[in-house]
Design goal:
mainly alpha; hpI Integrase, Chain A; about 50% helix
């Protein structure tokens, strides 16, 4: 039986979602979109888990093992702004009242944000992780790199989750990297440069 395709938000849905979020929740949603972290991983991080200008050190919420998530320029700018002047032992993401997010705090907020943004189901917080992964992969990232960013033990889980994107990725890879021989049309004679004795 074929696995169902995993949903991810498109660029328009991401913009609408971010605009519908209250500021404290917008920061959390942005963090998920820029890292692919699970909700539990995001809320467990402190400011000290961000290595300025580079990466986040995350305790994987499933395996318990630590992993490094490297950031692009937008991610670095976001986390630089989020952590500027803050002590290392503060929660990386705080609610508006300054407290740490709890295990179920995202549910009501996400439900309200997607309702305001008019985003169809499925549309829970975990879709943000799938959005990161799908866009990373479709943007040309390797399976191995994505697996490591997400904390998968190897590429098998990544392939299983994102197989529906694999054919488009393979087509793009083939167009970029398959060998070229200068052959114009199938069956047409190949012009060979004349050799002089």
């Amino acid at each position: 039986m074929e696995r169902p395709r995993i949903r991810h938000f498109d660029a328009d849905e991401v913009v609408r979602l971010l605009n519908a979020c209250e500021p404290d929740f917008r920061a959390l949603v942005s963090g998920a979109l820029l890292t692919g972290c699970r909700y539990g991983e995001l809320i467990d991080m402190d400011v000290q888990h961000y290595a300025a200008g580079s990466h986040l050190r995350v305790s994987d919420s499933k395996s318990g093992e630590a992993r490094v998530i490297y950031l692009n320029g937008e991610g670095v700018s976001f986390f630089d702004s989020l952590t500027a002047g803050r002590p290392g032992d503060e929660p990386l993401f705080c609610r508006a009242d300054g407290g740490r997010w709890a295990r179920s705090h995202q549910t009501r907020r996400m439900t309200e944000a997607v309702r305001l943004a008019q985003i169809p189901s499925p549309n829970n917080f975990h879709v943000l992780r799938h959005t990161y992964a799908s866009l990373y992969f479709m943007g040309g990232g390797s399976l191995e790199g994505l697996a490591r960013q997400l904390g998968h033990a190897d590429t098998r889980m990544t392939i299983r989750s994102y197989a529906h994107l694999a054919e488009a990725w393979r087509a793009k890879e083939a167009q970029a990297h398959a060998p070229r021989f200068g052959l114009a049309i199938a069956g047409a004679p190949v012009r060979i440069a004349s050799r002089r004795p």
